[in-house]
Amino acid sequence: MTTTTLIVRYLDDLLETDSVPDYPNALNGLQLANSGSVNRVAAAVDFSLRTVTAAADADANLLIVHHGMFWGGLQPIRGKYFDRIRALLAHDIAVYSSHLPLDRHALYGNNALLAAELGLEPSAEFARFKTISIGVAGESDVTTTELAARADAFARSHGGSARTTPIDAKRRTRAWAICTGAGASTETLNEARDRGIDTLIVGEGPHHSAVDADESGIAVIYAGHYATETLGVRALAAHVSDRFGVPWTFIEAPTGL
Fold it and tell me: 182: buried, middle or exposed (CB in 10 Å: 19+, 13-18, 0-12)?
């Protein structure tokens, strides 16, 4: 058993929580305290009643998530929102959330870990946001269909599947970039085009991203928002387990996206 404060301070330093910019609703760091001790850690992509209940069933009293308690914006604490809070307090579960700080981390981040999962080696940063870069990029020599197949196998292991823009069977990926989650934004596509990226790997994106990518000669592999963001929280919880000697559990809760 260790203290919540000790783990939170360590995570804040490791992830540079206070200095990494993010969207206002991310509210990175400790979002809900508990009575002060941790004897088991649970990790999940999303904060929901489903993941809170699973954390309680696992006897965890620290829940690490990527999309936190306030992701949907300000809400009255009633209905499902009240049920979530009541379950957390009843089981003395603290909640720690990390969005972009976790996405971009070189060791435990979603982007670096997805690259490794797909057999790719990053050599540069990608996906500029304010003062930071979120994603990774690199060079390769592999058929794009093979890369898409790897992404699909990974997505299916987390309850999803990968989709792609139209790809010729002989097409090869020589310059790639990754931005997990909702990574196929206009900004990332423009950056990919300007940097000569031929293949962009993301979680998901709007319909127009496929049209824009095709006109720019970029293949996009949509590997699933949920699947591409399972990696960071798993790695972070495993690291906390090793560092502080507490067991950990991953809560699989696919969204289908």
Answer: middle
Task: Provide the domain limits for residue 197.
Answer: 104-228
Q: Which of 209, 208, 205, 207 is nearest to 222 (CA)?
A: 205
CATH number at residue 171: 3.40.1390.30
pLDDT in tens, 29-71: 999 999 999 999 999 999 999 999 999 999 999 999 999 999 9
Q: How far apart are CA 178 and CA 124, in angstroms?
A: 11
55 and 161 part of one domain? no
Number of domains in the chain: 2
Which residue(s) pair with 64 in the sheet? Answer: 43, 96
Q: What are phi and psi of 98, to 5 degrees?
A: -145, 115
Same domain? For 83 and 134 the reply is: no
Max Cα distance, the chain (Å): 58
Close Cβ partners of 117 (under 8 Å, ≥ 6 residues apart): 150, 154, 231
